[in-house]
Each structure stands twice: as C-alpha cells, then as structure tokens.
Description:
This protein is mainly α. The chain is built from ten helices and four strands; from the N terminus they run ααββαααααββααα.
Amino acid sequence: MIDFLASLKSRNEYLFYFGMLCLLSAGLLFIKSRFSELQINEVNAWHKPVKFALSMGLFSLTMGWYTGYLTTYRHLNIYNWTVIIGLGFEVFYVAFQAARGQLSHYNTSSALYTSLTAAMALAAIAATLYTGYIGVLFCTGKFPELPDYYLWAIRLGIFIFVLFALEGAAIGANGSPGVGGTGGRALPFLNWSLTHGDLRIAHFIGMHALQVLPLLAYFVFKDVKPVLFTGLVYGVLALFCLLLALNGKSIFHSN
Length: 255
C-alpha cells in the first residue's frame, strides 16, 4: 500500500494531496455525523458532506493516476487547479451549510444562496468539461506503454463519467433529485428513494465508470472486445436508471 501511494503521489502530486485531504475530511465528517443529531430534511446533516468529500477524493486520486500518463501535456497544472478550486469549493460549501443546518443545493431562499448554488454548478461543470478534454487527449495521443484494452477502458470511463456528471445539471434544474414524489423510505446513508424516482442513482453509477471500467479491463478482461461490450452495457445500465427515475419509478420498487 505504501508503494502504491508513493507511486500515486509521483504521478500527480497536486491531485494526490487534494484527494487525500478530501478522504481525510470525509473520515472526520463521518465521525462528526456519529455524534450529531442535526438534521436537514429528516436526514443527518453530515451525511451529504461525507458523500461529497468521498466522491471528490476518489475522483481526484483517479484522475491523478490517469493524468500521470499525459507526460507531454504542458497545461496539466491548469487542470489540477480547476479541479482543486472548483471541487474544493463545493466540498467546503456543502460542509459549511451542513454545520449551519441549511441546504446547500436547491437553496433559493435568498439571492446569496441562489448565487452560491449557481457557483457550485459552474465549478462542477468546468471540472467535468475539462475532464472530458483529458479524455480527448487519451484519444488523440500516443500511449505505446499502455495495453489497448486498458486505454479503451480509460477513454470509455472518462466519457461515461462526463455524461452522467453533467446529469447533475438536470438534477439542479429539477430542484430535487426526486421525481414522482418526496419522502418515503430510503436507503440508509445514501438516502436514495425506495419508492420514487431518484436521479442520483444514474448519476452515481455513470460517474463511477471512471474507476469500474479501467479496473475490470486491467485486472479481469485484458482484451479490447469485452472492454467495449462492458462499457456499452454499463452505459446502458446508467441510462436505464436515468430513464426510470425520470418516469418517477424507483429501481428498488415496482410502481
């Protein structure tokens, strides 16, 4: 593990430290959640910042690993700071609002909160689109040291991630992740609805193509064809969850 962390740090030091800071924050916030009864919409107020910090940490470490292959890209630090500033602001604001017992997303109770919600959206979109450009670099560059199946998995993982990360804009436009109703039973911690449509499920599945596909390619498939097929099936699964949610239906319950 120590050797792996050292290798990860050497590939992209900026994203390594930011990712580790996010994971450390997630751990501290989780401990805080165990001793707090503060709730927002009948859910522990600290669960959301824990999830955001975990997600941003995993994303940053993953992209830190992949960008280690971009040895000829001269503007990598611009990407690094786009991620650090944009996503760092999002994690901080979500945690700050949780501490105050206030909504971070979907909060339009004042002009200030509306502006900060918009700022979070713009920061996330900027980081996502730039990540899409990183995916383009993996399509146009030469990577003779990488097996074809692994390279294709990185490309597919990034592009599926971008599509379903941008789905967050649809969630924001809806004013809520729920479709077809609010309240009711939900999965512990994740808080995904068990009775109504929930746009966060497709969002989650699609974004984690970034890790799932390259890991499967490198350790399991080791061939281009199953990687392409799995990428297609994975994308269809995420799309199915999205369409189901848009129709107000839960994947956990037959409406």
